[in-house]
Amino acid sequence: MLSPLFLAATLLLLSAFAHNTANAQVAVNGQIFTNGLAIVDAPQPGTTLHAGATQSVAIDISGDGHLPADSGPGSSSATHFDSLEIYLTSYATSLNLTVSSGPVLLTQEPGSTVKHVNWLIDSCIPSGNYNLTFYEGSHINSEAFFIITPLPIEIQNTNSNPGQCSNGTNPIQSYPQAQVAPSHSPWLDANNSTSNVQYPSVADAAVGLAVSPIAAVAMSFLLYSLL
Q1: What does DSSP assign to residue 4?
Q2: What is the SS3 string spanning 78-147?
Q3: Strand partners, 40
Q4: In the prediction, which pLDDT does 167 show?
Q5: How many angstroms separate the CA atoms of 133 and 57, rounded?
Q6: pLDDT reported for residue 24
Q7: pLDDT less than 70: residues of the chain
């Protein structure tokens, strides 16, 4: 018979897994706060986009006004961006397309705290549900993090036979992808309201590793063996 301690440990680990995968973003006053430094202004989750059209992707890199302008790659500040890239991903359509890669996004538009990508949605993309996936490397209070934020969107294509995409294609990554991320946005408090602190606190920068269900069960059995 399994002990109450073992069952409690199992439920704790599984609930931690659910929290780390389900709460990758929080909407506050129309802004999407990731679990990293980036705040997505556009598009909104669930937005329907159209193949062949141009969509503006806007990201606030100021931490809602908390970060100075020189908090990009190479900054000596304890809290700064190292990288920020965007990809369109779908396992259903087996697509992983580059929207923005390299240092351009963070270094363009000097003096502006909101960076924009004018993304031409390739006419080869079939209709379906996708993730606009943000990959952020950053330091928060001198701790290194790698945060993955999927933002769900829909793409409609009036062409029933759009053909195969060839430009900007990348291999499909395994799921779930490994990340090391804070448990919530460093710019939000526990109630998901905007924080008034200049920089994230040490408590906010606590590392939260995404744990797969298999790993969670394995860890539970390890705990059980030690009882």
Answers
A1: H
A2: CCEEEEEEEEEEECCCCEEEEEECCCHHHHCCCCCCEEEEEEECCCCCCCEEEEEEEEEEEEECCEEEEE
A3: 32, 59
A4: 85
A5: 12
A6: 64
A7: 1-24, 176, 194-227
- Determine the structural domain holding residue 28 and report its residue range: 4-225
CB 33 within 8 A of CB 39: yes
Q: What is residue 221's predicted lDDT score, i.e. its pLDDT?
A: 31
pLDDT score for 111 = 86
The pLDDT score that the predictor gives to residue 28 is 85
> From CA 80, how far away is CA 196, in angstroms rounded?
18
Q: List the 39-42 sheet strands across, edge first.
A: 25-28, 31-34, 39-42, 54-60, 114-120
| Residue type at 139 in one-letter notation | H
Helix (H) or strand (E) holding 217: helix 213-225
Q: Give tens-digit pLDDT for 38-64.
A: 999 999 999 999 999 999 999 999 998
Counting the structural domains of the chain, the total is 1
CATH number at 193 reads 2.60.40.1930
Q: Cα separation of 217 and 197, whole Å?
A: 38
What pLDDT shows up at residue 170? Answer: 87
Amino acid at 161: N
Stated as kind and residue range, the H or E segment containing 98 is strand 95-100
